[in-house]
Design a protein that fits this description.
This protein is mostly helical. It has one domain (21-293). Helix content is 65%, strand content 2%. A two-stranded parallel ribbon has the order 1-2. Helix 1 (6-26) packs parallel to helix 3, helix 6 packs across helix 11 and helix 7 (136-149) packs antiparallel against helix 8 (153-176). The chain is globular and about 60 Å long. Mean pLDDT is 87; it is low at 301-309.
């Protein structure tokens, strides 16, 4: 009844070991971890699942709820392990690559400051882009809800695995090619509206790169510590591709995520090369997840499961 694959479990375990192992070796501690409360609730639901299934008939709606619950529980576990690993691997302190990304943007013909100042001078554009940027959390969960409701377990399995792969790749690349993002050299007083609230938290980054033991406080504030590649861009490509067969939501998502790709630059203070790399990560992860998940039989096989409506 779960769309979580063995490879998906291995990725969560690997991210957790990388995060907590590296943290222990480098003297990093967390005063509070994000998502720990819902993760605890998820573990309780998991332990009670067998009893609940024995008491409740195998209706289609029950199956959908279970698929969605397992999927959301898995996303929480992936995000918790991923955030821990993202912060811990920044303790490597490798040289920042901002000069390289600035040069890459120039080679591509993009002027980051010109783009952001244009948006800052157009309030409507800022409002639209800020709205699109803030839909990321909803878009991460949306495929789970829709695919579970439609009983598309194979597509759900592929999405969950692709999400975990993309996050693992993002963390690995971000550890090897760290960057502070354009926010490091930015004078916020030069902007009227833009505040770049989704930008890399520089106070966290400098603390992580400092020598000696470090304690991170404020679990709710932990998050986007990686500049390259942009995980917002990854989600903006991954979500509509996974739901491309559901035309009712696909076309609105394409429009919304086109804005999200732009907002990664203006709201998240990402280099344009960060956004392009994030999109490439989504394509790679979805392709690899398709290869790996195709080996699993459909869970709705009538020979193994009888669904009574």
């Amino acid at each position: 009844m779960s769309a979580i694959t063995r490879e998906g479990v291995a990725l969560v375990v690997g991210l957790g070991m990388a995060g907590f192992g590296t943290a222990a070796l480098t003297g990093l501690t967390f005063a509070q971890l994000p998502t720990s409360v819902p993760l605890t609730i998820g573990v309780g639901l998991f332990l009670a699942d067998t009893t609940v299934v024995e008491l409740v008939p195998t209706l289609r709606v029950v199956r959908a709820i279970r698929l969605a619950a397992y999927g959301c529980f898995y996303l929480i576990a992936v995000c918790l392990a991923g955030i821990t690993a993202a912060y811990a691997t920044q303790r490597f302190g490798l040289p920042l690559q901002d000069q390289f990304f600035v040069a890459a943007d120039r080679a591509l013909g993009f002027d980051w400051f010109a783009i952001t100042h244009w948006v800052d001078d157009h309030p409507l554009a800022h409002t639209v882009l800020r709205f699109a940027y803030d839909t990321m959390s909803i878009q991460i969960v949306l495929p789970v809800m829709i695919l579970a409701l439609l009983d598309r377990d194979a597509a759900l399995r592929r999405y969950l695995l692709a999400f975990a792969i993309s996050l693992a790749v993002t963390i690995a690349v971000g550890a090897l090619l760290p960057a502070a993002s354009p926010i490091a050299t930015l004078d916020l007083s030069a902007f009227h509206v833009l505040q770049f609230t989704g930008a890399t938290p520089l106070d966290h980054l400098w603390l992580l790169r400092s020598a000696g033991p470090v304690t991170m406080t404020g679990g709710s504030g932990l998050g986007g510590i990686i500049s390259f590649p942009s995980f917002h861009a990854t989600c903006a490509v991954l979500t509509p591709l996974v739901l491309r067969r559901e035309r009712v939501v696909f076309y609105p998502l394409v429009l919304l995520d086109a804005f999200m790709l732009c907002s990664a630059v203006t709201e998240g203070a990402h280099y344009v090369s960060d956004v392009l790399a994030g999109a490439a990560v989504a394509l790679l992860a979805l392709w690899l997840a398709g290869k790996l998940s195709s080996r699993y039989p459909p869970m709705s096989n009538p020979q193994h499961l009888v669904v009574r409506d």
